[in-house]
Amino acid sequence: MSPLALLLAVLLLVPLSAAAQDEAAGPRIPRGAPESAQRPPEQIVLGLSQDEVAITATFDGSDLLIFGAIRRVAEMDLDDLGVIVTVAGPSVPATVFRKERRLGIWINSNAVNVSQAPSFYAVAGTAPLDDILSATENLRQSVTIPRAIRAIGNSVENSGDYIAALIRLRQDDDLYQLLDEGVDLAEGTLFSTRIALPANIVEGNYTVRILLTRSGTVVDTYSTTIGVQKVGLERWLFNFAHEQAFFYGLTSLILAIAAGWAASALFGRLRR
Amino acid sequence: MQLYLPIAEVSINAFLLLGIGGLVGVLSGMFGVGGGFLITPLLFFVGIPPAVAVATSTNQIVASSFSALLAHLRRRTVDIPMGSVLLAGGLVGSALGVVLFNWLRARGQVDLLVQLSYVFFLGGVGMLMLVESLNALFRAHRKGGKRGRRKRHNWVHALPLRMRFRVSGLYISVIPPLAIGMMVGVLSAVMGVGGGFIMVPAMIYLLGMPTKVVIGTSLFQIIFVTAFTTMLHATTNYTVDMILALLLIVGGVIGAQLGTRIGAKLKAEQLRILLALLVLGVCLQLALGLVLRPSELYNVEVVETAREVAE
Question: Which of A195, B107, B198, B307 has a CA positioned 20 to 30 A from the CA of residue A214?
Answer without folding.
Answer: A195
